[in-house]
Fold each of these.
Amino acid sequence: MAFAMCEPGAAMPDLKTSIADRIRAKLDAGDLPRLGPKKMWGGFGKNNACDGCGNPILTTDIEYEFNLGDKRTCRFHISCAGIWQAELRRRGWVHGNGAPPRGRSLPGKETT
Ligand SMILES: [Zn+2]
């Protein structure tokens, strides 16, 4: 009878806090890389947690995986990877091809 549909503590996503919001928060906190990956692999998931939304990437889902320079490996659902990369671009941290921005004017170092 008291069969719980949503176990407390099971990280049931609050759909009002969208995955995009979560990814933005992680970017704000520095938990997600702010640079685009040089290489990315796609494949089926291995039930590892997604670095974007935190949910497992099931073996029936496509997983995007890439290495960061510091040997850390990031995994995303394909949709989460898209949100993450779009957010990087939106913030101007990467440009279209994932390269870091260049020649941005820094505060106090502006040439007019
Ligand atoms: Zn995800």
Note: The first strand starts at residue 41 and ends at 44.
Amino acid sequence: MRACLVFLTILTLSACGSVQTDAELESYVSAFELEAKRHGVPVKGSPMVFVKKLSTAGICHHGSHIEIAKDWWDTLTEYQREALTFHEQAHCALGLKGHTSKQNTLRSKAIPSSHFYKVNRGSLLVELFDTVQN
Ligand SMILES: [Zn+2]
């Protein structure tokens, strides 16, 4: 009985505590924080966790943490993974509301192609952090 109460207490505390970033996603949180600082917006990245499935590739969950759909993640290139996580961080950590209808930006719903992101990464990041600041 006592062991059961201790177990329940630990379970309750962990459920109420802050969300921990999954190990595979830690480098993406750090990369976002580094780029944010470089672009004059020093913010703490929101925790990111994998979930099995979502109706989209990722979601900012009530502004507190980011959920990434593992089934989508497994189909993305490294560049697209960064684009996705930076987009969700913009919602969660920078307060980006809604999406632009413009294509090939980190503020639109669609993840840019790997090649496009690779070639235009610098200007895409400037645009992302600039528009959030203004
Ligand atoms: Zn979005």
Note: Residues 16-133 form a domain with the Zincin-like fold (CATH 3.30.2010).
Amino acid sequence: MKRAILALTIASLGAGVGITGATPADAAPAAYCASGNICVYNGFNFTGSTTPSWKCGVIDNIGSRWGSDQVRSFINNQTGHVVATFYNWNGSNWIPIGYSQAYDSRPYAPASFYNVPDGVDGIKPC
Ligand SMILES: [Ca+2]
């Protein structure tokens, strides 16, 4: 039991160091999203870690590489006023839960996108 508590404490300390000890290389430029992409962030105001999606007609499973239910802000920097669709994976199907028409920049994503199991797991950029 003592060992388990110690391991938990070390893990917690490690997480704290990761948050407070970010190097310049870890810090993404604020609100940068390359043209043609929709970029989601796990922090509000385009902070935290980010991942881009860009392939039209394909649901990009961001949950598999970046995480699920944590889209707190996003920038849709695509062209031509295309509409991106945000999806939740309900265990057997992709369910659309939100849309964004380019250009669109949301420092605060809808509350239904994060911290809930039905939050965003995938994005079809266009
Ligand atoms: Ca989800």
Note: The domain at 33-124 is CATH 2.60.20.10 (Gamma-B Crystallin; domain 1).
Amino acid sequence: MADGPAPIHDIEFTLNGDSVSRTVSSRMLLVHFLRDELGLRGPKIGCDTGHCGACTVNYDGKVIKSCMALAVQADGATIDTVESLAGESGDLDELQESFREHHGLQCGYCTSGVLMSAKFLLDRNPNPSAEEIREAIHGNLCRCTGYVNIVKAISAVAHGDSGLALIERLNREHATEVDA
Ligand code: FES
Ligand code: FES
């Protein structure tokens, strides 16, 4: 196969509510485009092979791993990254606040991807069980937290409880799952 410069393409899409127009190489991955060309640091690169979920973004209403898409595939799409969650003043949204409150992160490398998967879940299922939360984030690997506090943080937003009430509810759900 002949080497040489990759073809370039003009693309236009909506990113975190804003219109973006750029010229991109046909070989460029979406995650590299978001980070290196557009300066977004939310999507992380953990593996570049579709396994870790650190690069998760919302693409036309679905969560995708942006290391598994090409930048040219952004053309015409609506893409949201974790940067879309906080308000313009930088205030955290309730999901981010809940991760802070319930210690749902340690190093934070996986967190932007986990947040995007959690938001995708809650937008479609505002009342998920702990099992449904674990299923929703199964594509997001975290090597620090052990997931317990991540599930707590998402569950607290969904059910509006915290502290002892939250722990008791998760324990009840866990007992039901074990008995089933
Ligand atoms: S960097 Fe995309 S899944 Fe790991
Ligand atoms: S908080 Fe460190 S990888 Fe998840």
Note: Residues 16 and 84 are 5 Å apart (CA to CA).
